[in-house]
Amino acid sequence: MRPSSLNIGLVQQSVASNNKLENWQKSANRIAELAEQGCECVLLQELHSTLYFCQQEDTGVFDLAEPIPGEATEYFGALAEKHNIVLVTSLFEKRGSGLYHNTAVVFDRTKEIAGKYRKMHIPDDPGFYEKFYFTPGDMGFTPIDTSVGKLGVLVCWDQWYPEAARLMAMAGADILFYPTAIGWDMTDTPEERARQHGAWETVQRAHAVANSVPVIVANRTGFEASPVDGDPGIEFWGQSFIAGPQGEILAKAEAGEEATLSVTLDMSRTEQVKRIWPYFRDRRIDAYDDLTKRWRD
Questions:
Q1: What distance lies between CA 119 and its chain's CA centroid?
Q2: All structural domains of the chain
Q3: What CA–CA distance (Å, rounded) separates 86 from 99?
Q4: Which of 273, 278, 227, 271 minimizes the C-alpha distance to 248?
Q5: Can you tell me the distance from the alpha carbon of 105 to that of 122, in angstroms, rounded to the nearest whole number?
Q6: How many angstroms separate the CA atoms of 8 and 37, rounded?
Q7: Cα–Cα distance, 103 to 94 (Å, whole number)
Q8: Which of 30, 76, 160, 200 could join 11 in a cystine, given CB atoms 3.0 to 4.6 angstroms apart?
């Protein structure tokens, strides 16, 4: 029996080093706060165990990856069990020798892994050299079934693609989750920063609207220096948020500070909204074949 309401939360934090235990403890403290507030489901940001290492291409960084299951899943699974919560984490997975993924792992009130999702869309831009580290996911867009509903877990760059959100929703996702690590190049003008952030928030709120489901977005915050000489580093813009099934902002964090957010979602609203705005009924699936092409020549 799915709950008619759900207390849900997220953690927005800064990362100062690659000391995993220190970063895990920081997350654990925030998770405990949210659990004490009654949250039954908590989202952590992308790659929360370490610094955002994709600012450069360095083979030594692969030493930060770990198997799933492994030490990280043992740690966060124990937290999910201790606080009796559904917990969505984001890890650098070593799947095999020379094979690595950016992987979200979900726990459902126990130490056992309820499901995982491997990031499908992998960016390769200055300061975000993720293709060097991550093999694209091979698990498709399948929601993870939990005690609080079917969770459509996607990761960061996935958030720009309406196809990913749609496929999760078509498979019955009750909520979309986006653990994220996105920020500004320090040389960006204030005007460009405003445009980038506006686009980022708008496209994810649009996924909520187009699919009539809540969207939960946890972004990291704080400045992380680049290990590359002369590179200005990244100022992660925070501003994590929770949106309802019509894209309405229910809670939002500030840009430059660590924070937690929590709201109570009325899970019956998704069905109510879908009855008023029947996008799935009116989709012209007979006319969409070209969407599987790279381009229409």
A1: 10
A2: 5-283 (3.60.110.10)
A3: 28
A4: 273
A5: 18
A6: 10
A7: 10
A8: 30
Write the pLDDT tens digit of every residue in 56-108: 999 999 999 999 999 999 999 999 999 999 999 999 999 999 999 999 999 99
For 193, the token pair is: 């920063």
Where does the chain have alpha helices with state H?
A: 20-36, 71-83, 162-170, 190-211, 269-276, 279-282
69 cis-preceded (ω within 30 degrees of 0): yes
Distance CA 214, CA 243 (A): 6
- Closest to 213 in 3D by CA, of 180, 252, 247, 250: 247
Tell me the pLDDT band of 248, cut-offs 50, 70 and 90.
very high
| Residue 81 contacts residue 122 (beta carbons within 8 Å) | no
Task: Name the strand (E) or helix (H) holding 252.
Answer: strand 249-252
What gap in Å lies between CA 33 and CA 243, rounded to an integer? 21
pTM of the full predicted structure? 0.97
Residue 202 in tokens:
């708008």
Beta carbons of 234 and 55 less than 8 angstroms apart: yes
Helix-strand-coil split of the chain, %, nearest 5: 35, 30, 40
Which residues are catalytic, by number? 46, 119, 156
The predicted pLDDT at position 1 comes to 61
